[in-house]
Every structure is written in structure tokens, then in C-alpha cells.
Design a protein that fits this description.
Structural class: mainly alpha
Largest sheet: none
Number of domains: 1
Distance between the termini: 42 Å
Strand content: under 5%
Radius of gyration: 16 Å
Order of helices and strands: HHHH
Number of strands: 0
């Protein structure tokens, strides 16, 4: 298997790392919700087994938004952004 140049390899690693971070963040949110008893078994199945392409796109957009809010929370220190992040997380978990 031929490997491209270093820049291509770094780009692939960056993409893979970003995807792993998103999955880790989702796992953290799910575990927190489960521990706080905010998720029923049906809700958990809906989170783990989305039904449609549109739903997948919406979930991905929510995950990206939550991730950006999480990354920037220390820079902005806004209660409103924190509340928005938590609300979006709850919506993603409950949907």
C-alpha cells in the first residue's frame, strides 16, 4: 500500500482524531445522562440507532454544534452558551 506525502497522512490522522473526539464526547454525554437517569431504554435505542439520512444529518449538526460550544466554553464563559450547550445535548439524547 502506497502512502501519500506527510501532509496527506496528517490530514487523514486529523480527520480520524476529530471523529474519535466526537464519539468520545457523545459517549460522555450519554453516560452522564444515564447516570442522571434522564434517558429511557427507548431513548437510548433511538440515539444509538437513528432511522433516516435526514436524522443522521441533524444529529451530526447537533454534535458539531455541541462540540464547538464545548471547545469555546472557556474562552467565552457565557452562562447562556452553557445553557444552550446543555439544552442541545438533552435534545440530542431525547430525540
Amino acid at each position: 500500500m502506497k502512502v501519500g506525502n506527510k501532509a496527506d497522512l496528517i490530514k487523514v490522522i486529523d480527520t480520524s482524531t476529530k471523529e474519535l473526539h466526537q464519539k468520545i464526547d457523545m459517549h460522555r454525554y450519554l453516560m452522564a445522562a444515564i447516570l442522571e437517569k434522564r434517558v429511557s431504554e427507548n431513548s437510548l435505542n433511538n440515539i444509538l440507532l437513528p432511522n433516516s439520512k435526514r436524522e443522521l444529518q441533524l444529529r451530526e449538526a447537533l454534535r458539531d454544534t455541541i462540540e464547538i460550544l464545548e471547545e469555546t466554553r472557556k474562552a467565552f464563559k457565557s452562562k447562556r452558551l452553557e445553557e444552550l450547550r446543555k439544552k442541545l445535548t438533552d435534545v440530542l439524547i431525547e430525540s
